[in-house]
Design goal:
By secondary structure, this protein is of the alpha/beta class. The chain has three domains: about 5-50; about 60-165 and about 300-325, Response regulator (Rossmann fold, 3-Layer(aba) Sandwich), CATH 3.40.50; about 165-300, Response regulator (Rossmann fold, 3-Layer(aba) Sandwich). It has helices at about 5-10, 15-20, 30-45, 50-55, 85-100, 115-120, 135-140, 165-180, 200-210, 230-240, 255-265, 300-315, and strands at about 60-70, 105-110, 125-130, 150, 160-165, 185-190, 220-225, 250, 275-280, 295-300, 325, 330. It has a six-stranded parallel β-sheet, covered by helices on one side. A six-stranded mixed β-sheet has the order 7-6-8-9-10-12, with helices on both faces. Helix 1 packs across helix 3, helix 5 (about 85-100) packs parallel to helix 12 (about 300-315) and helix 8 (about 165-180) packs parallel to helix 9 (about 200-210). The radius of gyration is 25 Å and the shape is elongated. The model has no long low-confidence stretch (mean pLDDT about 90).
Length: about 325
């Protein structure tokens, strides 16, 4: 591959003129000269030295997207990407970062890591964090000295930028829909609700719907565990043993809900004839299960776009005060209720 010096010699111009064309500063170069240089760049298969450029500007153009994996003893950590939610979100984030001239770095992090070290070592320009809880912000995510956008995080973030979904309202809408369909024995399947987060917020909406409809909550209706298809199937086995105790289930994610449906069918129960099931997320896989999954839809693609837009505005200096954005949800009625 030719260097800038060699290209300048071929085009019979200065290195600065070649640099102006490479960096699209066309106002400083005549049309004829620009076209000649661009033709040589194509013929020589020239690729800019991003490393050298970034050293000079002190900007790596790297954005780190990270997801904490700090749930103790989670047996499904190494299969997290079985959940299409992550794929949809990462696709949106990468696409919009690429459009803005940035590159994506991705990493799951444990509670033994300090993310600020990773940010420093890789000269990361900004960070997007998905689903952190308070203790992680005080440990894993402390002292990060670049712009940060938190997604699906409900810790004290008054001084930080954040994007959440109407999780509590979604839990309410889901449960209220089941009640309007005549259901009164409604179980709830979630991941851990011990700390404030997406699961606890959706659970709060579930409890509010019960309260507003004068349905007393029964402790045996609550199932907590790991956020996976496999856990949903395991919970279904427990539910099947007490099938008369339930006529419906609100499951806090589509992946878990599909696992529940699979498990219920494996144990001889029909959905929705014996037990109705409603999920949350609006993933495409909800249409691939039988019956098709009724769900609360959030716009995951929009969430990725908003995260990138907010972070880039921070990096460009167009947004100075902390912003807190919320995405709406809506009920998508299919066949599982």
């Amino acid at each position: 591959m030719a260097s800038i010096v060699e290209i300048a010699k071929m085009a019979k111009v200065s290195k600065m003129t070649v640099s102006n064309v490479i960096h699209k500063k066309y106002e400083k170069v005549s049309k004829e000269t620009r076209e000649r240089i661009e033709r040589i760049l194509v013929e020589t298969n020239y690729t800019p030295n991003l490393f050298a450029r970034n050293l000079k500007s002190n900007s790596s153009k790297i954005i780190l997207f990270t997801i904490p994996q700090t749930i103790e003893n989670d047996p499904y950590k190494n299969t997290a990407f079985n959940n299409p939610f992550y794929g949809e979100l990462i696709n949106s984030i990468e696409f919009n970062l690429r459009k803005s001239g940035y590159y994506l770095m991705f990493r799951f992090v444990s509670d033994e890591e300090i993310l600020s070290n990773l940010v420093l070592n890789w000269n990361v320009d900004g960070v997007i964090i998905l689903g952190a809880v308070k203790k992680e912000i005080r440990t894993v995510f402390k002292d990060i000295n670049v712009p940060v956008v938190f997604i699906d995080t409900y810790a004290d973030l008054e001084e930080s930028d954040s994007i959440v979904t109407e999780d509590e309202q979604g839990g309410f809408i889901a449960t209220n829909h089941l009640i309007r369909r005549g259901k009164r024995k409604i179980g709830v399947v979630v991941s851990s609700i011990k700390e404030i987060g997406v699961a606890s917020k959706r659970y709060d909406g579930y409890r509010r719907a019960l309260d507003e409809n004068n349905i007393p909550f029964d402790d045996k209706w609550l199932f907590e565990g790991f956020p996976s298809f496999e856990f949903g199937a395991l919970i279904a086995q427990r539910i099947a043993k007490e099938k008369d105790a339930f006529d419906a289930l609100f499951v806090y994610s589509d992946v878990m809900a599909i696992g529940v449906i699979k498990g219920l069918k494996d144990h001889g129960l029909r959905v929705p004839q014996d037990i109705s099931v409603i999920g949350f997320d609006g993933l495409y896989i909800g249409d691939l299960c039988e019956p098709r999954l009724t769900t609360i839809k959030q716009d995951i693609t929009a969430k990725g776009y908003m995260a990138v837009d907010l972070l880039v505005r921070k990096l460009d200096g167009r947004s100075l005060a902390p912003e807190h954005l919320t995405l709406p949800v809506k009920l998508i009625e299919k066949e599982s209720v």
